[in-house]
Write a structure and sequence with these properties.
Layout (H helix, E strand, L loop, with lengths): L9 E7 L5 E4 L2 E4 L8 E7 L2 E6 L2 E7 L7 E2 L34 H8 L4
Parallel strand pairs: 3-7
Antiparallel strand pairs: 1-4, 2-3, 4-5, 5-6
Length: 118
């Protein structure tokens, strides 16, 4: 067959998941589920696809970026983190602040004790 290479090349790498829920590959960042921060993952790069595995399971798949300093983020990888775009829906209406507590004694009694008045 002409024009089709006789084999494909794949690279297999080991990476640590950084604090920004991503692994760095060839100067680019690819997101992984946030629960894997600090864990080591196995990455395979080939056929313009980046596959990330942890514990024998595929946890992320991204198109391979060309160039450097790029970042691909799957919003599902950040679900559940504080400050992410997706916020949980509140089922109960927000509660109103509690009413201020009633004074146990009239202020005139306190004024009489300290000997003052306005």
């Amino acid at each position: 067959m002409r024009g089709i290479p006789p084999f494909t090349t794949h690279r297999e790498l080991m990476r640590s998941v950084g604090a920004y829920c991503a692994v760095a590959i060839d100067g680019n960042a690819y997101s992984v589920p946030w629960r894997l921060i600090g864990e080591r993952v196995r990455v395979t790069v080939g056929n313009e696809i980046v596959r990330i595995h942890h514990g024998g399971r595929e946890v992320a798949v991204h198109a391979e970026l060309k160039g450097r300093h790029g970042r691909i983020v799957d919003d599902a990888h950040l679900a559940g983190l504080v400050g992410t775009r997706e916020r949980p829906v509140h089922l109960a209406p927000p509660r109103s602040p509690p009413a201020p507590a009633a004074l146990l004694r009239p202020l005139a009694e306190y004024e009489a004790v300290v000997g003052g008045g306005f």
